[in-house]
Amino acid sequence: MRFLIPALAAATALTACSQPAPSSEEAEARSVNLYTARHYSSDEAVYADFTAATGIEVNVLQASGDQLIERVRVDGERSPADIILTVDAARLHRAEEAGLFAVSDFSNIEGIAPNMVDPDGHWIAFASRARVIAYSNDRVEAGEITSYADLADPRWEGRICVRSSGNVYNQSLLAGMIAHEGEEAAEAWAAAIAANLARAPQGGDRDQLRGIAAGECDVAITNHYYYAMMARSSDEADRAVAAASTLVFPNQDTTGTHVNISGAGIAANAPNAEEARIFIEYLLSADSQRKFVEMTNEFPVIADSQWDNDVIAGMLPFTADDIAIDALGENNAAAQRVFDRVDWP
Amino acid sequence: MSSGRSVKATARPALTPFAVLAALVCAAPILAIAWIALSGGASDYLVHLAETRLPVYLLTSAQVGLIAAAGAGAIGTGLGWLIARCQFPGRNILSWVLVLPLAMPAYVAAYAWLDLSQAGGPLDVATAGLFPTIRGAWGAGLMFALVLYPYVYLLARDAFAAQSADAVQAARTLGASPFEAFRRVALPMARPAIAAGLALVIMESLADYGTVSHLGAPTLSIGLIRAWSGAGSLLDAARLSLVLVLVALFVFSLERAQRQRARTSAASGRHRPASRLQLTGRTGIGALSLCLLPLLLGLIIPLARLGWRALHAAYTPDVLEAAANSLFLAGTSALIAAGLGLLTAYALRTRGRIATGAARLAGLGYAVPGAVAAVGVLAILSGIQGWLDPLWRGMTGEVFPILLTGGAGALIFAYLSRFAAAAIGPAETALGRVTPTLDGAARTLGATGWTLLRRVHWPLIASGVAAAGLLVFVEVLKELPATMILRPFNFDTLAVTAHNFASDERLGEAALPSLAITLIALLPMAVVARYLSRDAKSGELDD
Amino acid sequence: MTDLTVRRACRTFAGEHAALNGADLDLRPGQVTALLGPSGSGKSTLLRAIAGLEQLDSGDIRFGDTVWSEPGTHLPPEQRKVGLVFQDYALFPHMNALDNVAFGLTGSDRKARAMVQLGAAELGDKARKFPHELSGGEQQRVALARALAPKPQVMLLDEPFSGLDRRLRSAVRARTVAALKRAGAAALIVTHDSEEALDVADTLALMLDGVIVQTGTPEDVWFKPVSAAAARLLGDANILPGQVEAGRVETPFGTLPCAAIEPGTPVDVIIRPAGLTAVDGDTFEVVESRYAGAERQLSLKAADGSLWYANAPAASALRAGDRTGLQLDAAFTHITPAG
Known about the structure:
The complex is a heterotrimer. Chain A is α/β, with parallel strands linked by helices.
């Protein structure tokens, strides 16, 4: 017993210093090191299919966008990251500003909207999500709401559910408004929403939909795929919640509905740049685009993609805001300050 | 220890450098953060914060800390006294079972209770909306109280058990009713122990991120993460975390300051181990119910809810791999921490100022949120890397083979920084049982050096060191933010898996890993609890 | 002024023998009663029962007409007017001396009255010190002052001098008794030290196996112990079993008159060592000769092998191995029925 402990200690100490993941220095199998901020099971299916199709192993490091950026930044030249993949535009922008991306030529990708590709070639989007308004079937008339600005009206006082302003989707939405209308107008809107809240922001987007179903509020701001997820859920309770509300895609006649993207770029110091390129192109392949729609309920970025999802089909087509994605990232910090000033917690 | 003549413990001044090393390991990330925070120019983000959200952050942090302290204090002190001073059905088992809620991470309890109490949840429906939703500062404070009260309970229980019955009985003869005797004598005598427990509770509540973010309580640690992610400024996050460290220092020094001239143990003479107040019949059942209530709220109900959720959710096979990773990290950290704790405890026996200061510094790590510790580790390791690489390249012409930040070593570094304090304490207490006179006696009988350690010290302190290790094991198992930041490729732990699902509002898939964390942690926690309760039963002062 | 009376007090702790087995005791105001007995005799239990810290299984304790303990009734300690000094003083470690003494007092002038009490104990300058900063003797005086401050009717002291240096003890005893007399309470001092008991007592009570076997003045009890066991409580004693024949008992030293006991009763003849002095002769062999300052204490073996204890002057030359005779002073003998 007495010797067991020192032996165990030595053994574990040795293993502790080891690096569990194979790096590109081991020439056995080709692999690509993916730093991703997404954690959906659809992604894992994509990785598996990628490996099956190309024989390249995918080594995944999953963490929040900021943490990934910090890690790559700190590791500098030594960073083993091949691909940096974010789930929102603001972090994509931040990674770009930090010089974490290599410059690539994405001109060979067809069927993709121009604002979905970085003009400087740092990144490319592979899936998108719209930030929409859900309203109660019982308590709100269809057509009452057509724009984000409508929610600022005092008649919605005490009737709006929305998640915390700390969430990047809200920040991006406001960043888009700042880009379109200027900070003052955006702040006025945010202040009005904050005054109309039915309850202090809590939970995620799905909790806002549940709030409508429970009668706590009449409208909510949410990402479209949460609604779709609940509508297609195997859980009866979730389906009931989705059935209690309807989605409207705001600003169809003006700027278009705010859309956020998941994007990827090749890391500046990627040890496996070639494999990274193959991977990114795979994200934009028909197979992957189908998975993003069918499994995560996102919108594809490649036009004429084939997929089978009736809830998503019911939402299309819609006019999306075609603002340069960079603008969303550039105004993110300002957006957060606006939220702080108007007391939207 | 007896007053009057004192014998010097076998001082091993040679070990002081180890204590200093241990302290540096623990404090280095904080120092790195401080260095980041203090360099760099003026930040208008902080000015902006001060005008807007900072007061809210500070106020909410204070609220959460106070509610947690009040709750844990009331539960821990009350139960501690009940177990130490009374006999009632089930008392012996409850004595250690009451420690078990420590195995449950506060954020797991938060997942379960929010799920139960939110609009449309089972409690809301069953009580027609009367049951309040567990959220905000009150909800978070309540979760911390339910899960962290064992810190206060353990210390209060041991303090009450060690108290001489005579003091309270003297108070009775001087005209104090039983409650007055408790309030004016027993409670003040136990106050330093209770205060130490409360300091731990407040520290953990302030450093937490998972619980307050899930329940929507905007504390300083939330503001810190927002500064990082929203404003993109690590500098501001570092500065805010300095504020947190200062708050922790303040709490620490408060706790030390109130241990003034007044002592808590009898000044002289033998003391009578108290005979326990027999509670029978309805009072006995009442006491039993009172003890079961925190267990029910803090452990059983959350486990039950998560179990139900897990049964109705899809099974993801990643959980097994995550469990293996969790166990690996927890085990390694526990071993190293136990060793570090022991070395530091030995160094502390010299009572040298350096060793004592080092140990204090090491304890600071507990106050820092995991995310901050992780960033500090990143900063340090990348700094070392930046120094090593050109050196190595100059010597061998090749790139230095190991990426310091890429392995589990970085993560374990962060764990040690955070949790070493948890190991030093029990190691120090265990070593305290090796009294100087015992050492002296053994040495006159010929046992010196290694033999002394092996044959005299080790048997006495083995269980204490094991307890220290197990405590760290449980803490690492529960840890979330540092793990998220520093973990290697393809390496998820149970905590990370649970958090990813929960923050994506997929509580069904989050349930199984959350359950796993708690259930795995229960076993070592039970071992520690029994060990700590076995000691208390004898109830006699050393010496 | 009322008496405290204990009658037929019985108390058995779970799984153990009876601690109190029908104890009777009276405490009179202004009088110091010493309760002497070996460890386990039940004296501390009796003291704690009087204080209200232990319940009785049967028997009663009354203070005048007020019932303190009785089957079915138990007045809690805080409602009895009792002062208690514990063996380890039980000072509140988190309070200074003044606050300790003031603990049992109420009213806005409690600190002033406590100060007076401390002054009487000559501890005025130590009022702000904490218990761990005081010497053993000082702690004892604070404990006494604290117990006396609320002017209790009954004072109970549980081995109050055992923690002190030998040299201090008689001085501290004298001060304590003086303080108790000044207070005028009925005082009970529990001890296992016979010298202490003889010194402080107005009334001496002997306790064995949960029963008070004898009470009386110290001289009465010392000179006329009620049994061999009682005699041994108070010091060394030679016990000679014998039999009463025609109003007399035979001893190796001669015949002793014994009119009070029925002829034919087996008796113990109790002879104090002080009653045996060495004289010329060789009937006894000295086994041990211990020097004790003012005298020598001898153990001697008789011809029949029995062991005897006697005293000799300090200057005596008797050592182990010597032979001597012994002479009896009948004043130091007492005859009691055996058993």
